[in-house]
Structures are given as structure tokens and as C-alpha cells.
Amino acid sequence: MIAKANFHTHTTFCDGKNTAEEMVLAAIEKGLSALGFSGHSYTFFDESYCMSKAGTREYQKEIQHLKGLYSHKIAIYCGVEQDFYSREPITGFDYAIGSVHYIKKEGMYLPVDEGAEIIERDIRTLFAGNPYAYAKAYFETVAEILETTGADIIGHFDLLAKYNEKNPIFDAKEKGYRDCGISAMEALLPYGKPFEINTGAMYRGLRTEAYPSTDFLKEIQKRGGKILLSSDSHDCASLGYCFAEMAALARDIGFRSRLVWTSQGFEEVGL
Ligand SMILES: [Zn+2]
Ligand SMILES: [Zn+2]
């Protein structure tokens, strides 16, 4: 059984702070039995955080090299975090995480994870001041993430709440917000792909809950959805952050298992 594994890992090939090899060594040190890399796919309209086209090929080469080098210590996978609006193919990767980082509105790509002031400005200027119209646009995009990207894992389901701890932007209990999230969830559930429980914003001290929120996680469980633990790591220290707490939370909610990626595809393991 794979006790501890992370499949959402960034490196200096995109916006991570550590090299791929440093991440591998840290994962071994922490006792992880599998490490999946997920560099940000190239997005032509925003090159600030993603892998370049040439860098993507270098990334694949380097991960392949590390796979061989450390195969006796840890299983390594070369995945990709495929943005909804990326036009790059996902072929050639072991798996893909499908993620929405932008809402497209009037030809513009509005980042949902780059700061509260950006979100508030966009709500004001492009959504007539209505945060629930913004949330609706976000979740309507999320609803199509698997269809559009062909991904294996649903990345940070409610990323738009990154700066919404204590609800300054919108009330996460509000029907106008919850209903949009649940519609997206219901559109994705039939694919049978896991929703990641992503602790990235917890590690950064921005949130006390993972993505998806505990509230959404309960709805996923009620509907028979699957889960996978991920720390969306951008540095060594965050690998596996709060996994024990998230596994306990998932158990409390009623989940009995989680998925891990293996060379044979997904495998179900106990929580
Ligand atoms: Zn992401
Ligand atoms: Zn990520």
C-alpha cells in the first residue's frame, strides 16, 4: 500500500522554488513512496508562472532522468497541471491535473488566484459588482475542466476562494455560491475522476480549509465522489503538508478510501 504520496508538485521549471531533484530528495527524506510532478502547462496569454514550450521538453527529460536515478527509492511520475485555457497537448505525460486558474470574460483572462484586489476589481468592472456572477462564471468553467482538458484529476475545485477566508469577497454559505459549486461538482462526478484535497493555500497560511472546502467535500462524499490528497507543493517543506489531518477529516466526513496514481493508473487505498 502506498502510505504517503503527492501528485501535485511544482519545480523551478515553472513557479516552484526548488529543483526537481531537490523535491525528489525531500520526498525520500519525508518517507513518500511516490512523487508525481505536475508542472504548469504553457499558457500563451500568461507566461509568468508556467513552463515555457522548450522548458516543457526539458522538464520531461529531467523527470525521466530522475525516475531512473531514484527508482530504487521512490516511484516518480511525470504529470502536468493542465490549465483550462492551455493549448498544449497532454500526451506524453503520465497523468494530468485539470485546473481552472482564469475566468475568460470579454476576451480577457482574469486570474482567480493572484490576489483579492484583482478579484474585487474584476467583480466590480466586469461582473456589475456581483460576486456570485463571478463565482458562477468560475464554476461554469470548472464544470467543463475534464471534458476540455482530458485530465485525470480535478485540481483545486474552488480555487476562487483562495483569498476568501472569513468571506470578505463572497459568502461561501450563500445559495448563489453553493449552487454553482454543486452544479460543477455534479457535472464532473460522472467521469469518476478524483477531486484532489489540496492543502496548498493552508501551507501558505491563506486558508484554514483545503480545496475543496469542507462544505463542498461533504457534498462530494454524499454523491459518491472520489478523492486524492495533494499538497500543490512549490517547495520542499510543503510536501505532504497536513495529509494526516486531511485524511482524518475525510474519514470523519464518511470517505473510506482515497486514490493514488500508480504505473497501472489509479489505485484505491485506505484513508
Ligand atoms: Zn493550480
Ligand atoms: Zn499547482
Describe the 3D structure.
The chain is an alpha/beta fold. The protein has a single domain, classed as TIM Barrel. It has helices at 20-29, 53-69, 116-126, 131-142, 145-149, 175-188, 200-203, 214-222, 243-253; strands at 5-6, 34-40, 75-83, 96-99, 102-105, 108-111, 153-154, 195-198, 227-230, 257-262, 265-270. The strands form four sheets. A five-stranded parallel β-sheet has the order 1-2-3-4-7. The chain has a two-stranded antiparallel sheet with strand order 5-6. A two-stranded parallel ribbon has the order 8-9. A hairpin with a 2-residue loop joins strand 10 (257-262) and strand 11. Helix 4 runs parallel beside helix 6. The longest helix is centred in the first third of the chain and has 17 residues, at 53-69. The N and C termini lie close together (11 Å). The mean pLDDT is 97. The structure holds zinc ion (2 copies). One zinc ion binds next to loops. One zinc ion is lined by residues 8, 10, 81, 232.
- Tell me the CATH architecture: Alpha-Beta Barrel
Which runs of at least 5 residues are low in confidence (pLDDT < 50)?
none
Share of helical residues: 25-40%
Strand element count: 11
Structural class: alpha/beta
| CA gyration radius, whole angstroms | 18 Å
Instruction: Provide the CATH superfamily.
Output: Metal-dependent hydrolases
What count of domains describes the coordinates? 1
The overall pLDDT average reads: 97
The H/E string reads EHEHEEEEHHHEHEHHEHEE
Bound molecules: zinc ion
Shape type: globular
Per CATH, what is the topology? TIM Barrel
Q: What is the distance, rounded to the nearest whole angstrom, between the alpha carbons of the first and last residues?
A: 11 Å
Report the portion of residues in β strands.
15-25%
CATH first level: which class?
Answer: Alpha Beta
Count of DSSP H/I helices? 9
Main beta-sheet strand count, sense and barrel state: 5 strands, parallel
The strands making up the biggest β-sheet line up spatially as: 1-2-3-4-7
